[in-house]
What we know:
- Strands 1-2-3-4-5-6-7-8-9-10-11-13-15 form a 13-stranded parallel β-sheet. It has a two-stranded parallel sheet with strand order 12-14.
- It contains 19 helices and 15 strands.
- Among the domains are: 1-41; 47-150, no CATH class.
- The longest helix has 24 residues, at 493-516.
- The chain has helices spanning 7-17, 20-26, 31-41, 56-69, 73-81, 107-122, 131-147, 179-183, 196-205, 221-229, 246-254, 298-305, 324-333, 353-360, 381-387, 416-422, 440-453, 472-483, 493-516; strands spanning 104-106, 153-156, 187-190, 211-216, 236-241, 262-267, 285-290, 314-318, 340-344, 368-372, 393-397, 410-411, 429-431, 436-437, 463-465.
- Pfam families: F-box-like.
- This is F-box domain-containing protein.
- Residues 5-46 form the F-box domain.
Amino acid sequence: MKKYLPIEILQKIFCSQLDILTLYNCLLVNRLWCKTVVPLLWQNPFSHFDKNKIQRWKYKSSLINTYVTCLDSNVKNYLKNSDIILPEEINKRSTFNYETFLQSLDYTLLFQSTGNWIGEVENCTLRKLTLRHYLLVEELCKLFFSSSRNLKELIYDKPHSLPHVQELRYIPLKYLGAEQFMSKLVSFKVYDLIPNEIIISLSQISHHLSEIQIETTGDNDDVLASLISVQKSLKKLVICSEDNLPKLSDVLRKNLSLSLTHVEINWEFCVPFDIFCNCSDTLEYFSVQQYYSGSISRSTFHQFSNTQFKKLHTLKIITPKLYLDQISTLIKNTKDTLKYIHLDYEKISIESSVELINSISTCSQLNTLEIFVPDDSISCIVNLLSSCTKLQRISFLTGDSLNDLDTYTVDISDILPKIGKILPNNLSTFYLSHNWITTANSLRDFLKECEKNFKKRGEKKLDFRIIKELSAEHIDVIEEFGKRGILDLEDTALGKNLQFYRQQFEWKLARNIIVNK
Length: 517
């Protein structure tokens, strides 16, 4: 008697080891593998292909074709009586109940690909919403909401440019029999302007969302605040806003039971950092991007920087203005839990930069560092690298506006060889600031020291970046250490640009010869 692994075990193996194309090949092995793979392929079928390529929408139209075959015969008759043309093969029942496998529904993709399917069947372009389009989307949504026990995620993506459909309309959830689905919903993502009615419906029923991702212009602050205020299990919050959200901020600040683990905030204006202080025992990932410095002051960071975040492993702050002594305090308060630090700020904020670099030096678990290092603290890099021995990726940022990149340089020739002596053994990426320059001899000495340190690395090479004021001698050094197996010049930007740099030198040389004649 043959013994097979249970389907559940096979699915876990397939999900962790195989890509989408290999999964398709597995369909043809035998019946057991087919039954195992089909649910995996239909968990989120719209996400498997590039939505920006028009030819992929033929695939999405075929998905709609398959889902329409899953509709009840009475529903199909209703659609026919509503002047929707259904191909002959639609009358056959599908091999599997594909609708039951769906775990993530992107309403925008469903709506647009349904219109695209109607356009292909009728050989026309639906420039405006038709009743046929509306009715078919409605019935498909009802099918998913009533049949799929696994449907946990609802997405409203940005609309896409399609050959057969242009207009996008939103059907209120209350008309789709979605109450039971909404009560079990765990993830809600919105990347476009949607009617407030949809968010209000969710706030009335969906109280156990673990993930919310919202892009907003800021004019729906009150409904977003209402949605957040009723959540009991929220772990991940991602908000991109073009304006301040005072009501939402107030809800986050007052919710003492909030236990967020992942926060990403991208606001045009100043982010009130203190709204997340209540998550000191749970917060693991914290990322903030803000672009306007007018309202940023020391009070903005004060409470947040003095809070001990016991589990924080990722800290990413991109802002025009940053008080480095406060960020130093924040880093010290994490008690060596940080593994990823990204700090990008303008040169106006360089006070206490040495203190900041020294505080980062205490992060022994750090594996990724992306940071602007002001001129007066470049010498501290040696101590930092000798202390953070687990670093795998280092990227030194500029701290300048794009207008300054071509006019300002700092010569690090004296310190670069010293850095080479203490680079961490597991380092795979090392990017110098765009504004840093070095002599060809210093670069050679640096790479020689790297070669000594990297003897234990085996075949692993270094992805290295240096951009400013490269000469032919620099290129010779880089190519030499590429051949010696120290620098990765095959799959990196530096390697791909070497030929371009060579051509630039040849062109300048030829131009100088012509001018001198």
